[in-house]
Write a structure and sequence with these properties.
Blueprint lengths: L2 E4 L2 E4 L3 H13 L5 E4 L19 E5 L18 E2 L2 E3 L1 H13 L1 E2 L2 E2 L4 E2 L2 E9 L2 E8 L5 E6 L2 E3 L6 E2 L13 E4 L16 E5 L3 H12 L3 E6 L9 E3 L10 H5 L2 H4 L11 H7 L2 H22 L25 E3 L5 H8 E5 L2 E5 L2 E4 L4 E3 L2 E4 L3 E2 L7 H7 L10 H21 L40 E3 L8 H16 L8 H19 L13 H11 L8 H7 L10 H8 L8
Parallel strand pairs: 1-12, 2-3, 2-13, 3-9, 13-26, 15-24, 16-17, 16-24, 17-20, 18-19
Antiparallel strand pairs: 4-6, 5-6, 7-8, 10-11, 11-12, 14-25, 21-22, 22-23
Helix pairs in contact: 1-11, 6-7, 10-12, 11-13
Length: 576
């Protein structure tokens, strides 16, 4: 038997995006019947207590990784390094956030239903029917809602590699998703650990396994790969305590060629003139050289440490990467980890076998092999209609031709504006099987321009790759609220399509393989926030001219947004 629940708004996902979306909506609609569904057992998404472990660190810093209405208590000094901090404090913060925000005598936590797996969504008229099941009991649930907020994130469902012979392997095979809740680091039966993957999660697991006294092998894929990730020193320069603070300044944002920064005399000088392009190329070459020097990939080593050298320059971001949280990371890895470059053929009892014939003794296999899309409850046809990635082969020829024409024109504009993007280095490029995202402002399906027109029943939050989700979600949630409430006027559909095509073409040129999905904003956070705030008529420059240029964006800087939003979009009558 399936129970049917009618709610005013349904949110899929209880991570950072889903939690703040609920808070934002209930702030102005406190009587609403709002429910949040999450497939995990606890709140926080990537940062939940099940996935965390004591030595898991954030990639963001104190004062930047919180919502503007509630400060995160400063972690103790032993849990802070150059203002980066252990991820367990983000977990505690989100746990506290859902308990301290209540509406109509119910907290945000009271509205979350855990261990619920969404299976399908169906649109009928202006109502969504969401079918789900309990992961532990298979009990079925149905939710009907006129407003659906999808906040399922980019790191929800593990991408597990095919490992022939796994049934013969007697040890544990885990994804990074389950690393924190496993016993691999403390089990006396596990002495040798083999890690698959080339990104930050693999690097973290390799480091932690060494520190736990394990013998560690690290396998980097040899073919069809963008190569190992860039792992950077987090140290700052001048008045900046760390590299993250520098990246959260508006002036640093202008050092990358992007339409989001606006086209003005400064950005033209840096990215459209021969002198500026040469200057910026020199700047990024210096960053690249310094990163490689810090790692010292050329050191004499019998463990294959040189294999960790990234295959492409840091500017292009064709591989994964991240900031390091341990001063001794490279020394620890080079001295203790055996690194292989090879493709996995399969598993045997106590062994991982490479296609080269090498057999690597292993008591446990840890996979830092990324994630699959969390939007699998949509059909291919729904993905096409909503502007979500779908198989290129399934796209009707007229639509394929339409977008090809738009993107070709956008590509010409991109190269005319940013000549530096015309000549990328030689690099591996992943085979494209799916279309990119085609959401307007990376949130909403393409729709009619009138605020009251079109199907304004669904939005997508957190489906972008950025360095800090807290300010991103804060602005996305306000934009989505105004959109769902019919208070946000948008340009015509043709202009929306042109904007989507321009970002798609630019993203492919700027981020190569990592730009194919059309949602990469590694260096575009501030410009993206400016776009969202501008759409709502809100102030994007909030710190004075000097602070806006040179000071990092702190969470507290967005503190006045809600009040401005209420007045600008006519919500005064529903204020508490």
């Amino acid at each position: 038997m399936t129970d049917v629940n009618e709610v005013d708004v349904l949110i899929i996902g209880a991570g950072i995006s889903g939690v703040f979306a609920a808070k934002c909506y209930l702030d102005l609609h406190p009587e609403s019947r709002l429910v949040i569904l999450d497939r995990d057992t606890c709140v926080g998404g990537t940062w939940n207590s099940r996935r965390g472990y004591d030595s898991f660190w954030t990639q963001w810093t104190v004062g930047t990784a919180e919502f503007s209405d509630q400060a995160m208590p400063r972690p103790p000094d032993e849990d802070v390094y150059l203002e980066f901090f252990k991820a367990k404090h983000t977990t505690k913060y989100i746990e506290s956030y859902v308990d301290t925000h209540s509406y109509n005598d119910r907290s945000l936590r009271d509205r979350i239903q855990f261990s619920i797996e969404v299976q399908s969504v169906l649109k009928s008229g202006n109502e969504w029917t969401v079918s789900a099941k309990e992961r532990t009991s298979e009990v079925q649930h149905t939710f009907k809602t006129p407003k659906l907020i999808v906040a399922s994130g980019l790191t929800s469902i593990p991408n597990m590699p095919s490992l022939p012979g796994r049934e013969k392997f007697q040890g544990q095979v885990l994804h990074h998703n389950d690393f924190g809740s496993s016993n691999v680091l403390i089990s006396p039966d596990i002495q040798t650990i083999t890690i698959l993957g080339a990104g930050k999660s693999s690097a973290d697991m390799a480091y932690e396994a060494v520190k736990a006294g394990k013998k560690v092998n690290w396998i980097l894929k040899a073919t069809d790969t963008t190569g190992p990730g860039f792992f950077l020193s987090p140290k700052g320069v001048g008045p900046y305590k760390n590299a993250f603070e520098i990246g959260m300044t508006r002036v640093a944002a202008t050092f990358t060629p992007s339409f989001m920064n606006g086209i003005n005399w400064w950005t033209k000088l840096l990215h459209s003139t021969r002198y500026g392009v040469k200057l910026m190329s020199s700047f990024w070459d210096t960053v690249d050289a310094d990163a490689r020097k810090d790692a010292n990939f050329g050191r004499e080593n019998e463990h294959g440490f040189e294999k960790l050298s990234p295959h492409s320059p840091i500017f292009w971001q064709n591989c994964t990467g991240g900031l390091l949280n341990h001063k001794d990371f490279f020394d620890t890895i080079s001295e203790n980890v055996q690194i292989y470059s090879g493709d996995v053929q399969g598993l045997e009892d106590g062994l991982l076998r490479l296609q080269s014939g090498e057999k690597i003794p292993s008591d446990a296999i840890l996979c830092g092999t990324g994630w699959v899309p969390s939007l699998q409850f949509f059909t291919e046809e729904q993905c096409r209609e909503l502007g979500l990635p779908h198989l290129v082969a399934s796209e009707p020829e007229n639509e394929k031709a339409h977008w090809a024409e738009l993107e070709a024109e956008a590509d010409r504009k991109t190269l005319a504006t940013f000549p530096q993007l015309q000549s990328p280095p030689e690099h591996y490029h992943k085979t494209t099987t799916h279309t990119p995202y085609r959401l307007y402002r990376h949130i909403a399906p393409l729709c009619e321009s009138s605020a009251a027109a079109g199907d304004r029943t669904i939005v997508f939050l957190g489906q972008v790759s950025v360095g800090n989700y807290f300010p991103t979600v804060e602005c996305q949630a306000l934009w989505a609220l105004a959109y769902l409430d019919g208070k946000l006027a948008l340009p015509g559909r043709e202009e929306q399509e042109q904007g989507v095509a321009l970002f798609t073409a630019w993203c492919r040129r700027r981020y190569l393989s990592n730009g194919e999905e059309g949602n990469n904003m590694t260096f575009e956070l501030i410009g993206y926030l400016d776009l969202l705030l501008g759409d709502m008529g809100l102030r994007s420059h909030r710190k004075g001219w000097f602070g806006d240029l040179f000071a990092p964006l702190w969470a507290k800087d967005l503190g006045g947004l809600r009040g401005e939003f209420v007045k600008k979009l006519g919500y005064e009558k529903v204020e508490k």
